[in-house]
Amino acid sequence: MKALPGTQQIAAERSAIIGEVIDGPPSPARDRLRVLTGDRPTGDLHIGHYLSSLKNRVTLQDKGIESFVLVADYQVITDRDGVGAIQDNVRSVVTDYLAAGMDPTRSTIFTHSAISELNQLMLPFLSLVTDAELRRNPTVKDELAATDGRPLSGLLLTYPVHQAADILFCHANVVPVGLDQLPHLEQTRVIARRFNRRYADGHQVFPEPDALITSLPTVLGLDGAKMSKSRGNTIPLRASADETVALVRKARTDTDRRITFDRERRPEVANLLTVGAAFLGTSPESLASEIGDAGGAELKRRVASAVNDALAEHRRRRLELEADPAYVDQVLRAGNERARVVAVRTLETVRSVMGMTY
Ligand code: TRP
What we know:
Number of strands: 5
Order of helices and strands: HHEHEHEHHHHHEHEHHHHH
Radius of gyration: 21 Å
CATH architecture of the largest domain: 3-Layer(aba) Sandwich
Bound molecules: tryptophan
Distance between the termini: 54 Å
Shape: globular
CATH topology of the largest domain: Rossmann fold
Mean pLDDT: 94
Low-confidence stretches: none
């Protein structure tokens, strides 16, 4: 593993300790964990989400760890002009959560926009950060750069603070994230610390959450660029088996018939091998040597069937759920109710420690 700089290194060490608690036998330390995760509902979830987070969330839930799962609808408008097909997108995300095995009686699935009290936390939290801090945030900078010259909106600049409200409203102490989200988690820790010191006389109103760093290999899109819903270079979970075959067939490869795993010189082939191996539960190297001289077409055939086999059950459940949209809506309403109860209580505490009870 390559050396990580300061805060990242420390976060990685804390993450490893929490990983041990989670993977160990049931314990009081494990019972104290509360996990929050979230997705921006900008489109359908895809195989990248499945590999890097959905499966992991279900594992945590099934170990009995309390889980909050946020469909971050206000975060959709950080970097674009409209909400898009927000209703459909939210429903699609919730449908994939359920198809993946999230149990709505154990995991609280909710949306930003339904929880006023969560959003109100943004106000005291904004008082705890400076504009210089926000402008330095590497994730915000990257996301701004990805919008091709769009001016920085107030919401894009401050969404790390909103994300702190997502995490702190429910006193989550563990947040599974990729390395790209680590700056947000550090910002959340700073906000919790400053809130406790400035407004709560040093009392621990908010815990400082830890990252649980997911160390999966990055899966790229089928064109070799970053996988993203807006680029259309993904395999959506909702795609049928035939659509998956067609999507994989379009993926870029190279002209060398012999399949080898070489991230530097053959990034597109390496990416297909990574996807195939992840779904087969093997390593990209051994998948490459199995294919050997059979060429790109055979590689694609294997990747498509690996994805299709692994997702068959997910897709079967997804179709069932799609036939019952009222159930999906009801899951979200019930989750919002539960999240709201938690948020109301937290905001009451905040008002009370700040002396704002009238
Ligand atoms: N920003 C996250 C993403 O793009 C989604 C998200 C919103 C989130 N709020 C969160 C993740 C709070 C962790 C904690 O994937």
